[in-house]
Amino acid sequence: MFANGQTVIQYVEQLAPKRIAVEGDKIGLHVGTLQKPIRKVMVALDVLEEVVDEAIAEEVDLIVAHHAVIFRPLKHLRTDLPAGRVYEKLLKHNIAVYTAHTNLDAAEGGLNDWLAEAIGLVDVEVLDPASEDPYQKLVVFVPLTHQEAVLQAIARAGAGWIGNYSHCSFQTVGTGTFMPRSGTNPYIGTEGKLERVEEVRLETIIPASRQSAVVRAMKEAHPYEEVAYDIYPLELAGKRLGIGRIGRLSEPMTLRQLSELVKRSFSLEGLRVVGKLDDPVAKVAVVGGDGNSFVSKAAFRGADVLITGDIYYHTAHDALADGLRLIDPGHNIEKIMKQKLAEYLVERLAAGGYQTSVIASQIHTDPFQFL
Fold this sequence. Notes:
Layout lengths: L2 E2 H11 L12 E4 L5 E2 L1 E5 L4 H9 L4 E4 L16 H11 L3 E4 L2 H5 L4 H9 L1 E13 L1 E9 L3 H10 L13 E9 L16 E13 L3 H11 L7 E5 L5 E16 H11 L6 E3 L5 E11 L4 H6 L4 E5 L3 H9 L3 E4 L7 H16 L5 E4 L11
Parallel strand pairs: 4-5, 4-17, 5-6, 14-15, 15-16
Antiparallel strand pairs: 1-3, 2-6, 7-12, 8-10, 8-11, 9-10, 12-14, 13-16
């Protein structure tokens, strides 16, 4: 069975909810329809014509991209021009394009966390918190025969996480009562007869952003026709979400050594560095893409160095004046999302029992090269 397009995107949005995107960001479905079975998904950084040709050759039904294929308003749709050819090919071959941009940047376990992990940062925090994901309490009543199945299902969907501990729950055994009425098809019991069943009251914590995914997983794993459950708001600070990450190196090193590490980590031929190469660095901030607007934030948070792309000349001078060093590996290090998001979707689709395959685009889309 192949997953429907909406199902694939639900998995994407469970990782990167739309609500955490920067206001005005061009995210969501850009081309085509999701109302179709998806045999193959391709994850791409940019939707260039070469990438679309690759998708056609691979018989892809859906491209999940980081950068928008429609970023500026279209003045025309001319198929004799490069942009028009891209849209023509996508439509002719029934390839849908969905974009996850700043929501993937800000997501816990998303792009900026992948960058921080690749560099080897520890004790990582959000560089610029913009929102909070409040916690809720889920209580569901489950027959003893299915308590493990329901726990595992909701944990996979994102419930029961406290810090680095997963599957956190509290379970108490009691007696549930119900009477199946006319027209019901009960898993346990007989129509018109009051039933008493030994059940478990399963309590756990869920981030609000995961509520729909957790409830859906709970209902799929639960044997009852009508599931009894409650969701309560909690006065408990949720996880902070936002763009960029800041952490520290496991061992201090020089700016030169860190620059070489960045080159190796992202397979780069070169990069730009601002600061004295022999300066020691320990606290590091990282922002995928264009991070010019985060220079003052990184300096304020006490970073020794900010790793980000597209640094402007005068911004570099401002950073030096603030005592902040810069490593500019280019915008294209965001290519890490291709393999990481593909791996995530492979795992989620397999857990859902779908045969939909996922590949990462192999086209190198960085327009810059070093001589």
